[in-house]
Amino acid sequence: MTATLSAPQSIESWLGDEAEDLLTHQAKVSKDLLHLPGSDFIDRTFAYSDRSPQVLRSLQQLYSFGRLANTGYLSILPVDQGIEHSAGASFAPNPIYFDSENILKLAIEAGCSAVATTLGVLGSVSRKYAHKIPLITKLNHNELLTYPNQFDQFMFASVEQAWNLGSVAVGATIYFGSPESSRQIQEVSRAFARAHELGMATILWCYLRNPAFKQDKDYHLAADLTGQANHLGVTIEADIIKQKLPEVNNGYGAVAQATGKSYGKTDKRVYSDLTTDHPIDLTRYQLLNCYSGRIGLINSGGASGKADFAEAIRTAVINKRAGGSGLISGRKTFQRPFEEGVKLFHQIQDVYLSPDVTIA
């Protein structure tokens, strides 16, 4: 879970044997079909939308802060794991993060675009930090204290509370595919509409959850299913989509075959014309479902482990080359010594700053 801080490695060295494939792959779907990140991203993609001038200002704040300022890319620290995974499980690896202020200190020192965390964390220090880094209030959570454990997203905060503490954006999670998803879609849609009324941007944690999605492979990470989740997310006017990096495809077919029942609708051209099994093509399909990039796609860094630096840089390269808008990195960065967390963020950000990592 720790890495020795030494002389910086090149992006190629972090990618190892995959370097040539990931850095030179030509995508199945042309980048010419996409709205790509850039310094004028808000002007090109949102200026003629129904977002108010106040929302445009909030979006521009997100894209204008930190080491990636005015590049069209985002680097966000998310810390809601104290609720989602329990405080003990999340912060025991580095107890300084039981103190809410250290979460914001990490984001600032690391040159992040914003910090996304709970009402309680932000409310405890908002007067000190609301003018120092863009704040994103995560509105809903799943908690693991209820017995037996359940998996559902409930509102912990109101949009008005987020606005009062100075947030420029709100975030929420929907478990698409779950029995509770219909209620969650309605709750989050109303919350996002209210956030837009108050001038805040909206970010959706666009996740899948259903036991039927775990078959011979984990189809919670299927490009076709996560792509459709993204499409539902942009339909309720999420301004940014957060999604896990895809690892497989044809989740529709796998679920139908495993259950012996018809499931959803797709088209064979999704698999023949729009995707391959390459991670950049799978991620590009996720982006296609974000109105071809009009809504930015940020991928998540995943759980912390022994190869955090290599895994995070690999994810950043895939996201950038697919046309995505950045990375949101939590446990990999805060479940380690503070200086190492800063270093990991800088390594991720360097991928987006590098002219050698191009759009596929």
Give a written overview of the molecule.
This is fructose-bisphosphate aldolase. By secondary structure, the chain is an alpha/beta fold. The protein has one domain: TIM Barrel (Alpha-Beta Barrel). Helices cover 42% and strands 13% of the residues. The strands form 2 sheets. It has an 8-stranded parallel β-barrel with strand order 1-2-3-6-7-8-9-10, surrounded by 7 helices. Strands 4-5 form a two-stranded antiparallel ribbon. Helix 9 links the parallel strand 6 (169-176) and strand 7 (201-208). The model has no long low-confidence stretch (mean pLDDT 95).
Defining traits:
42% helix; single chain; 360 residues; eight-stranded parallel barrel; alpha/beta; 10 strands
